[in-house]
C-alpha cells in the first residue's frame, strides 16, 4: 500500500508580495526551499493563517536570501501582503517507509529567514 504523508513544511512564513497578473504559482526564497527540502516546480499546499484559505500550486525559485514569498496569478486573490501562511508538501511512499519517515519542518523568523 502507498500512502500520502507530510514531506516538508515551512511553518508560518509571511507573504511579501502578490502578483495577480502572472502565470501562476508561489515564489519562495531559495534558502527556505533548501532548508525545507522543497524543489522548484514541486506541488505545495498553501494554508493562510489569517483568513483560512487553502490552495494548491507549485513552487518557483525565488532570490536566495531575499525572504520573498509571493503568491502569483489567481492565488494572489487568496492572501494579502503580510498574511502568515504555512507551505506544506507531501510525498507518496509505502506504509512501512512512511512509518519511519521524518518530515523536514522549518520555522522561519518574522523576516522569513530560516532559523537553524
Structure write-up:
The protein is mainly beta and 116 residues long. It has one domain (2-96): Barwin-like endoglucanases. The chain has 2 helices and 8 strands. It has an 8-stranded mixed beta sheet with strand order 2-6-3-5-4-7-1-8. The longest helix has 7 residues, at 30-36. It is globular and about 40 Å long. The relative contact order is 0.36. The mean pLDDT is 96.
Helix segment tally:
2
Mean pLDDT: 96
Which structural class do you get from the secondary structure elements?
A: mainly beta
Query: Any idea of the CATH topology?
Result: Barwin-like endoglucanases
Low-confidence stretches: none
Count of DSSP strands:
8
> Can you identify the CATH class?
Mainly Beta
Element order: H for helix, E for strand = EEEHEEEEHE
Oligomer designation = single chain
The coarse overall form would be globular
Which value, in Å, is the CA radius of gyration? 14 Å
**Total individual domains:** 1
CATH architecture: Beta Barrel
> In which range does the helix fraction lie?
10-25%
Please give the largest β-sheet: 8 strands, mixed
Amino acid at each position: 500500500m502507498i500512502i500520502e504523508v507530510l514531506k516538508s513544511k515551512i511553518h508560518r512564513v509571511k507573504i511579501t508580495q502578490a502578483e495577480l497578473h502572472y502565470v501562476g504559482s508561489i515564489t519562495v526564497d531559495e534558502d527556505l526551499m533548501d532548508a525545507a527540502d522543497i524543489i522548484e516546480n514541486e506541488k505545495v499546499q498553501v494554508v493562510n493563517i489569517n483568513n483560512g484559505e487553502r490552495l494548491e500550486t507549485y513552487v518557483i525559485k525565488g532570490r536566495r536570501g531575499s525572504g520573498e514569498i509571493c503568491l502569483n496569478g489567481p492565488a494572489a486573490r487568496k492572501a494579502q501582503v503580510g498574511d502568515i501562511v504555512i507551505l506544506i508538501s507531501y510525498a507518496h511512499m509505502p506504509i512501512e517507509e512512511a512509518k519511519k519517515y521524518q518530515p523536514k519542518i522549518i520555522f522561519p523568523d518574522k523576516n522569513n529567514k530560516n532559523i537553524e
